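Milestone M4 deliverable, item 7.
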Amino acid sequence: MKYAILGIGQVGLRHFNAFKRIKNLSLIGFIEKNSKKANSFEKKFKIKRYKNLNKLLILNPDFVVICLPHNQRVKPIITCINNNVNLLIEKPLTKNINELKKILPYIQKKNKLIHTISFVHRYRKEVLQTSQLIQKNKIGKIRFISEMMISQKNPLLPRWIDNKNISGGGVLMYNAVHSIDKLIFITKSKIIRVFATYNNINNGIAVEDTITAILTFKNGVVANLLAVFAPYKNNSIWETKIFGEKGCIDLKIREGLEIHTNSNSKVYSYSDHYNKFGTYHNFYLQAQSYIAALSKKNKPFVNISEGIDNVKIVDAIYKSIQLKKSINVI
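Output delivered:
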């Protein structure tokens, strides 16, 4: 099997490092606008750089990994789909709802292709364990979830994420979309209504660096989402507190989880797992899962429809902020 990568920035390299661990899979070419990055990558790994996507697609890759800035994805997605190429697309699927509308007809027409969105945190051991406990009814029916995602904004992140014309938004687009996907995965239900607001810490940027949203799910669950991208050091945390009718689960990404009921408490620690495999092992698990789906022609663990829904939810959140009212997710 062979593949190509569009964009070899930080996240593109994480995908590359994950896929290179898989046997009988080869990277046949890549596209990168930054000549310094491209030349370094080409020299180090002996992989040809292409400047034209159509010439790269002549090599007939089995799939293409798209890690381009958010506003540069529509044309490559359409071109790849028209050439019957499967896609792994870094989140979010598109910059906004208008760009989503441009690619939807192509996705729907070529619906036999196997596309996935890189909601890579869904592959973490602690998230999968939490989902299993909930499906086994260990805490009963979920009633409320508190989702908190606080981190320092890494100065090494690409500058374009602060440009709304390129990124489409701030902490919601870059970080909190993962929280939204995780909550949908845990609840096994769609978000139908949102109410949100924000207040920037750093007034020097044109995108939000804090956001809070109330998310209402079709199955009745209510979740409070808080995301902060602070411009200074802080006690970063990504914590999900899930309250059911019989007990609760406290999930901490990259650490583990605790489950508590009136009759029992249990701690699941994944410190040894992360010490052994590293912080980004979930990229490898995602790569394994996607290759298996392509090989067996099965539905991927994260389907393209979930990426579509995520864009719609984000659009509703931004509308809620703008109009200062609850918005139904269409």
